[in-house]
Amino acid sequence: MTFNDFNFDDKLLDSLSAMGYTKPTPIQEQAIPMIMANKDLIACAQTGTGKTAAFLLPILNKLLKTEKRHLNTLIVVPTRELALQIDQQVEGLSYFLSVSSIAVYGGNDGTVWEQQKKALREGADIIIATPGRLIAQLQSGLMDFTHMQHLVLDEADRMLDMGFYEDIMQVISYIPKNVQKVMFSATMPPKIRTLANTILNNPETINIALSKPAEGILQQAYVVYDSQKVPLIQSLLTTGNFPSVVIFASTKDSVKILDRELQRVGIPTKAFHSDLDQSEREQILRGFKAKQIQVLIGTDIISRGIDVEGISLVINYDVPPDPEDYIHRIGRTARAETKGTAITFVNDKDQPKFFRIESLIGRDIDKMPVPESLGAVPLYEPEKKVEKKHFSKGGSGGSKTSSNYKGKNPNNRRRPAR
Ligand code: AMP
After folding, report:
1. How far is CA 393 from CA 92, 246, 396, in A?
2. Residue among 15, 19, 332 to mutate when testing ligand 1 (max atoms within 8 A of CB)
3. Nearest to 402 by CA among 327, 350, 332, 334
4. Best mutation site among 21, 30, 208 for ligand 1, i.e. most ligand atoms within 8 A of its Cβ?
5. Whole-model pTM?
6. Which domains does the chain have, with CATH numbers?
7. Per residue in 72-96, pLDDT tens?
C-alpha cells in the first residue's frame, strides 16, 4: 500500500515526500480510510507506530475541501510536550497547505495566554490542547464551535491516569453532537472502553498489537538492593561510553532525590518533572537534544512523546508498574534503527513486576553481574516472591495488569529458576 491509495490531495502528498514518509505504517493503513469516511474510531496504538500522522493526514485532507474552517479540529492531549510535538507534525505535514494551528497549554505567562485567546477567538483550523488550559479558555466564552468537524483524544489512557476524566467530559459538553470523534490510547483497560462507549457514536475499532522493543536495543537487568543503585549508575557511566542517557524513576519525588544524589557523587544531571515551568522544561529538552546535557532524569512523562535521536542508554531506576510502560521507556533509545542499551534495576520488591515484563516480551532479559566492590546482591527469584504475596493475600496479588496481558498471570507459568 502507498499513500497514493488514499486519494490524498497532491499538496498533501508533496508534504509527505518532503517529510520522507514513503509508505503508510499499519495504524495509518487502517485508521486513515476510517477517518476519511467520517467514522468515529477507537484505536489502540502506542507512540512510535505513526499514530499522530494516522489522524492528522485524513483531517488535513478533509480540511482542504472544507470552506468554513473556523476551529475545525480539536486535539486533546495529556501533556504540553505532546501538544508541542503534534503541533510540529501539523506544521511539517501541512508545509504546502495553508492550515493554521495552535498548541494551547498552561504554565506560560500572560502574553501567551492572550495569544492563545486571540487564536481561539479568530478560529485557528487545528487546536492542540491540554485539558486544564482548554477549559480555562472555554470558560472565557470566546470559542465558537459551530464549524467544528473533528475531536481527537490522544493518549486517552494517560489522560485518565492523570485524573482528567471530569475535564474531558466538560470539554465534550461544549462540542456539538455531530462532530466526528476519534480516540487513541496506548492501552485498552476497562475505563477506556467505558469512556469510548460514553462519548463515541457507533465507533470502528483498531487494535495494533503492542510494538515489541526495537531489535537494536540491548536489554539488560541488574538485580540489586536499593542502596546499590546510585553506585551502580556511577560505575556504568564511568566505565561505559554513553554520551546521552535518560534515567527513569517512578515518581516526581524520586526524580528529585535521585537528581540530588547523583549530583552529590559528581554526575552532572538535569531533572525533568511537572514542577518545572514551561520555559525550564523546554530549555532542558533543548539542552538534552543538543547533547549539552548528558544525563536527563524524569518520570514516565518523558517515556512518551519525546522524540530525541541518539539516546545511547536508558536506565530504569525502578521497574515500571505496567509492562507496556517498559516498552515505551526503553523505546527512547535505538530510535530509527540505531543501537542503544536499556538497563533496568530490579530490587527485591520489583522482581514480580520484572517477571511480567519478561513474559510480555517473550524472553528472559540478561541479568548482569554487579561489580564485586558493591557487595552481595539479592537472588532473582520472582516466582517465590509472587507466590509468597499470593498466599499471604489469598488472591491474585492485586498488582496492576495491562489489558494486553490478560490471561497471562505469571503465577500460573512455570519458569526455570535463575
Ligand atoms: P508517532 O507514533 O506518531 O509518535 O510517530 C513516530 C515517528 O514516526 C515520528 O517521528 C513520525 O514523524 C514518524 N512517522 C510517522 N509516520 C511515518 C511514515 N509513514 N513513515 C515514516 N515515518 C513516519
Report:
1. 53, 36, 8
2. 19
3. 327
4. 21
5. 0.62
6. 3-208 (3.40.50.300), 217-405 (3.40.50.300)
7. 999 999 999 899 999 999 999 999 9
